[in-house]
Each structure stands twice: as structure tokens, then as C-alpha cells.
Write a structure and sequence with these properties.
CATH architecture of chain A: 3-Layer(aba) Sandwich
CATH topology of chain A: Rossmann fold
Order of helices and strands of chain A: HHHEHEHEEHEHEHEHHH
CATH class of chain A: Alpha Beta
Largest interface: A-B, 43 and 43 residues
Distance between the termini of chain A: 20 Å
Strand content of chain A: 5-15%
Oligomer: homodimer
Largest sheet of chain A: 5 strands, parallel
Number of strands of chain A: 7
Strand order of the largest sheet of chain A: 2-1-5-6-7
């Protein structure tokens, strides 16, 4: 479908069409489109920008990734569809392992997403073989890679389901989420929640990773001073502000 | 995919899977799933209930449909997927013509949606033949049925795009929208905006249609006293309230 560059929502429409195309290719699940829509709504209420509190959360997430001994970035269909290049670049910068982990898991879909990441330059992408099992979650959603999520101490989970976020926290890992919904279970349960749009958040985290590589003191300060409850409260407040101002149309 | 009845979001998940299935059947467009997700987010912030102001808007929409000489209800893929039976029942109650009108129009998709409505008992459903053109909108989105939208004086437009809502208003019609986003162009441009979830709104409008059939005085009162700007403001306020109260997770 041809989208007029004049359309006031041109960029959103282009992303939507691309996500639809990735559904046809089997990378994004159909219900992933629904999740994408939810994110669009929350992002609109954020004002489609990185808030001050999200910027701070991004720096803190970067600090955690650098402090980690075994950092892992999980990637599902939506994250791959929206931000494959950015996530792979961030993984190389830390460095961190990348593991493909899907809500609607099937060998075919895992293969599609892993291959897609490899086609974007991903090396040693985990996901095809998942031999370990997380506790406290339905078995079809519990499988993960031994040398990935299972052995990780810090996990970055973009666009993840609440059940899995909770299971990772219970398993004793430090959980860094990227989630536009400040009310979601994922947001509430994670240790650091970046309430920002994925393609804004990921490059921002990478920039700080590069800045803080040799600054252990600043990393520790960021981690010590971070308060996720306050971060979520400020994110919700930012959305409220937007609701009070009459929009020009979405 | 089997969804556990224990999952805290069981009902939402069932609807999402059904919408995904209707995409596979060609009734719902893939980008329609994204729109559905946006609605989910806004509905969550409404508290997934009919607010007082939405209830009043529903009554006012019913009054307008009864006052109309040529009322028409437009149906797109999402509206059909979510609420075909309810919309057909409302149309019979008024009575109003039903016209299928799609954002992603193709003869195949129009046929799918019209056939779907017919399979749910729809009679004289318009949409296969669109000979008239609305002004002020890109030509592929301007086509409509002569004896439907084109000649209508009052149009109920569930889940409609802002461009088309605006074109209908410019064409001099009274536009009644059902839209969960109180900031959208559709919401701002329509004369009556029902900020409520479709499957709650439609039966509510039908109930009032049956109640007000013989009460011209009450219909006129509702119409005279309705203030859409105030209605939208109260809807935004309801969402703000929800953001301020920490959710148990979405």
C-alpha cells in the first residue's frame, strides 16, 4: 500500500506496513502486531519522545549491562522487526550474548527470527537449541538457552511478557525491561524499566555503554541511585500531562 | 495457541487470537491488528468499563440514529471482526443501512467482509458496488455507496480513520464515531464520539434505540444538551485517573 508522504502520520504508517510485511515473512507473530499497536498508543501519550526519567533509566540499564559478568539480550519477533540492527549493535558494544526467545514459539518461527538476525549481521545468536528451563512459568514458555538466559546474571528484555519477566526476577537475575506501558506486569516487576520506544531506547543505551566503559564509579552511582517505582511514576505522570493537553490528532 | 483460563488476561488473549484468525481469513487487515492493540491500551486506561460520559454519548448517538432520515452504519474489517452481530442487530433496530467501507480496500477484501456479515445474518449489506465519491479525501479512500454513505444524513462510524471522519463532516453529515482514543482526529472531528470499547458501546446504543423509539422529546433533549468537547475532556480525565493509580499489571 502506497502511503502519501503528506499523511500526518507518515512515519508510523511506514513502520506499521513494515511490521505487517514481517508478519507475512513469519518474523513477527500476528498478535505481535497487536502488541505493537499498544505500544503506539502509549508512545503517543509519552509525546513520542525520550522523557528525562527514561533517559536516566537508559543510562542505568547501560551501567548494569557493563557491570554484568554474563549479560544477555533477549529478542522476540517484535524486537527483531523493529530494531534488529540496533540490538545487535548494542550486543556487540557491551558485549552481550543475544538469545531469541518467543512468546509464540515454534521451531519454524525461532528459525525465522534467528535467520533474520543473522541476515542483519548477528553472530553466535542463541535460540535454536534451548536446553534449560526457567521455573515458575508454564513449560512451553519456560525453555531457554543454557549459555544464554539460564546462566545470565543480567538480562535486557525488550517488549517481553509479564510472566517471563517475573520468572527471570524469581530466578535471581537483574532484569532490565524496555516497555512503553508503565502499568504492565513486566514494567512493575523488572528492576529497571525503560519506558521508551524501542528504536529510541536502544541507541541511547548503546551510547551510554560506550561512554561508561571506563567509568566504574559512575556506573555504580547510577545503579545505586536508581529507583524504578519513582521512574514508573514519572512516566505515568508524563502520559497524564499529554492527555490533559488536547492533541492535534493521532 | 491454547490459552490458559488462569491467565490474568484470558479474555483479552482470546479476542487477540480471534482477531489474528480473522486476519488469516482475510476479514481483518494486518494493520487492523495494530489498530486493535492501540484500542486495547486506551481501553485499559479507561478501566475497561463504560464511563458516565461514554454512556451519555451512547444515548445521544442512539437519539441521532432515530432522528435521521437516512441513517447508515459503516463497517470495516476490525468492526466486523469484533462486533458483527452487534452492529447488524443495531442496524435492524434503528433501522439503518449497513455499508462495508475499508481502509485497505480491494475487491477481494470487500467481498470477504460483506460475505462475513451476510454469514452472520446481514441482509442488504452495501459495499460491493461503490459508485459515489466523497470529496476532500484521496481517491482510493473516497469511494462509497450511493444509497449508503453518500446519501446518508447521519453516519455511525466505528473505528474509522481520521481522514474519512473529516470528509464525512465536510460533506455535511452528522458523524457519530466509536473510538477509544479521545485524542484522535476522528474523535476530535466527529459530532458525537463514543469513547468506549466497541462490544460495550454497540449493545448500549441499541438498548437506547429501543427505549427512545417513541420518545421524540427525550431524543431532542439529548441531542441539544450534548457537548462533544466536554465529553472528550471527561474521557481523557478518566484515563488520567487510571494512570495515577498503580495498576496490578496489564
Amino acid at each position: 500500500m502506497e502511503i502519501s508522504r503528506d499523511h500526518p502520520r507518515y512515519r508510523s504508517l511506514v513502520v506499521r506496513e513494515r511490521m505487517s510485511e514481517l508478519v507475512r515473512q513469519g518474523v513477527v507473530a500476528p498478535t505481535g502486531l497487536i502488541a505493537h499497536g499498544r505500544g503506539e498508543a502509549f508512545d503517543y501519550m509519552l509525546g513520542e519522545r525520550t522523557t528525562g526519567t527514561a533517559a536516566n533509566a537508559e543510562k542505568t540499564a547501560a551501567a548494569w549491562l557493563l557491570e554484568a559478568r554474563r549479560p544477555v539480550i533477549t529478542v522476540n519477533g517484535n524486537a527483531a522487526g523493529l530494531c534488529a540492527d540496533g540490538l545487535l549493535s548494542l550486543a556487540r558494544a557491551v558485549p552481550a550474548r543475544v538469545e531469541v526467545n518467543l512468546f509464540h514459539r515454534s521451531p519454524e518461527r525461532v528459525e525465522k527470527v534467528v535467520s533474520y538476525l543473522e541476515s542483519r549481521g548477528g553472530k553466535d545468536v542463541l535460540g535454536r537449541v534451548q536446553s534449560s528451563r526457567l521455573e515458575g512459568i508454564a513449560s512451553d514458555r519456560a525453555m531457554c538457552c543454557t549459555e544464554g538466559i539460564y546462566e545470565a546474571d543480567v538480562v535486557l528484555i525488550p517488549l517481553e511478557d509479564g510472566d517471563r519477566a517475573g520468572a527471570l526476577v524469581k530466578a535471581g537475575k537483574t532484569v532490565l525491561a524496555i516497555d512503553l506501558n508503565p502499568l504492565s506486569r513486566t514494567s512493575l516487576e523488572s528492576h529497571v524499566t525503560v519506558v521508551d520506544e524501542l528504536t529510541r531506547a536502544v541507541p541511547s543505551i548503546e551510547r551510554t555503554v560506550l561512554e561508561l566503559k571506563d567509568d566504574a564509579e559512575e556506573r555504580k552511582r547510577l545503579i545505586a541511585e536508581f529507583d524504578n517505582a519513582e521512574n514508573l511514576r514519572l512516566s505515568r505522570e508524563a502520559m497524564c500531562l499529554r492527555l490533559k493537553v488536547q492533541g492535534s490528532g493521532f
